[in-house]
Structures are given as C-alpha cells and as structure tokens.
C-alpha cells in the first residue's frame, strides 16, 4: 500500500488531504497517471509539468522508483513574491 498526500492547490482541486492506493507502481509518474484517470478534477490537479513530488519527505523526480509503504506527496511548485 502507498500513502498519497496532496498539498496546496492540488489538495484544493481534489478535495482530499490524502488517500491510500493498492497496486504495483514502478514510479511516482505511474501513480500520477493512475490517479489522473479518476476524473477531470484529478487530471487537472495532477497535470504533468505543474507538479512536484516528494517520496518519503524527500523532493524527487516523477521518474523516481516507489515501493510499498512509501509516502508520496504531490504539490504545486511554490513561488515567492
């Protein structure tokens, strides 16, 4: 099982703080694609190119490997002003 967390605008669009996902996924990108198929708001919130990912609280690339028990957090890039 994977623990998926959502932050910022990603969380606001999806309407959830997090979910748990069962299945075999090779990368954070595979999870992103899987979740994007859940509907329009998921696709919008998890749009590639507008998303950062952390695996076990370490900033990672979408191509990074994941394993059962990992915590994967999706969030938008943060900008300052």
Could you tell me the mean pLDDT? 95
Continuous helix count: 3
Query: How are strands sequenced across the largest beta sheet?
Result: 2-1-5-3-4
Main sheet overview = 5 strands, mixed
How does this structure look, described?
With 81 residues, this protein is an alpha+beta fold. It has three helices and five strands; from the N terminus they run βαβααβββ. Strand 3 and strand 4 form a beta hairpin. The chain is globular. The model has no long low-confidence stretch (mean pLDDT 95).
Features:
single chain; 81 residues; alpha+beta; 5-stranded mixed beta sheet; 3 helices; 5 strands; 27% helix; 26% strand
Provide a short characterization of the protein structure.
The protein is α+β, with helices and mostly antiparallel strands. It contains 3 helices and 5 strands; from the N terminus they run E-H-E-H-H-E-E-E.
Topology:
Elements: E1 2-6, H1 8-14, E2 18-21, H2 28-36, H3 40-45, E3 52-55, E4 58-60, E5 71-75
Parallel strand pairs: 1-5
Antiparallel strand pairs: 1-2, 3-4, 3-5
